[in-house]
Amino acid sequence: xxxxLARAAAAERGYLLLDYDGTLVPIAARPDLxxxxxxxxxxxxxxxxxxxxxxxVVSGRTVEELRRLLPVAGLYLVGVHGAERxxxxxxxxRICDPAFREALRHxxxxxxxxxxxxxxxxxxxxxxxxxxxxxxxxxxxxAEVGRRFVxxxxxxxxxxTWRLLGGKKVLEIRPAGTDKGRAVxxxxxxxxxxxxxxxxxxxxxxxxFRTVRRQGGIExxxxxxxxxxxxxxxxxxxxxxxxxxxxxxxxRAETGGGGQGLPTHKHKGRGDGRVG
Length: 276
Ligand SMILES: O=P(O)(O)OC[C@H]1O[C@H](O[C@H]2O[C@H](CO)[C@@H](O)[C@H](O)[C@H]2O)[C@H](O)[C@@H](O)[C@@H]1O
Fold this sequence. Notes:
Layout: H1 2-9, E1 14-18, H2 40-48, E2 53-58, H3 63-69, E3 76-79, E4 84-86, E5 93-94, H4 98-115, E6 122-125, E7 130-133, H5 139-156, E8 162-167, E9 170-175, H6 180-189, E10 195-200, H7 205-214, E11 218-222, E12 233-235, H8 238-254, E13 272-274
Parallel strand pairs: 1-2, 1-10, 2-3, 10-11, 11-12
Antiparallel strand pairs: 3-4, 4-5, 6-7, 7-9, 8-9, 12-13
Helix pairs in contact: 2-8, 4-5, 6-7
Bound molecules: the ligand O=P(O)(O)OC[C@H]1O[C@H](O[C@H]2O[C@H](CO)[C@@H](O)[C@H](O)[C@H]2O)[C@H](O)[C@@H](O)[C@@H]1O.
């Protein structure tokens, strides 16, 4: 972690781009159980106060939900894997074909009829996307219900307007033409010359890793084990991410680039490695 920290802390201008589930907060059995740990809001608040630095949360969750989970005034937010975007204190911009959005309403109803009688499924309606979670379902039912979910999507949605995403125990239908890579490129375009650091754990973060890598930034996969990825660095888990962020804040503060007082969040020991 030391080489990462040294490079990041030396930057006068930087952009922290942080995934939520699996990166800032450990994966939980259900989406509603993945709450910010004590100290996360405080840590993010301090980070948004670093002069010359911006902080964004780039998530598959909606911007509305991110604002509820992380009430931090200075955060940029990207929601629904890039289909939503909001600057601090501003309204939500959505990238979504109106025909897709209208058709999605019908899919939500049909998918609800499919999933409701089944054990262990959670349907997450994001307005511009629809996720079917199967973390707590029997594997055989997950496969069968998943197949029927995709079939329903093909029936209800206009061709070319949507994409199917397979994430961590979730299938998600989202608008075509949106991904975290494009969203991150859009954020960085507003702050040319800043050092971008992206932290993420899931397949949808790979698009963002590639964008950040192309722009000379730092990409960090959050995973206890190495796996094929575009990220050149790895941290084991969200505790290590918090540790990194807390240390970054301290070092920027020491060089006159941060606020006052030390972050009070708790984090565990060390242990990270460069991938490959
Ligand atoms: O881009 P992210 O911030 O990582 O969001 C990705 C998805 O995260 C959530 O689902 C995942 O986390 C849940 C809570 O830990 C877990 O129960 C589920 O199995 C995971 O897939 C969220 O509910 C989705 O909307 C996000 O797209």
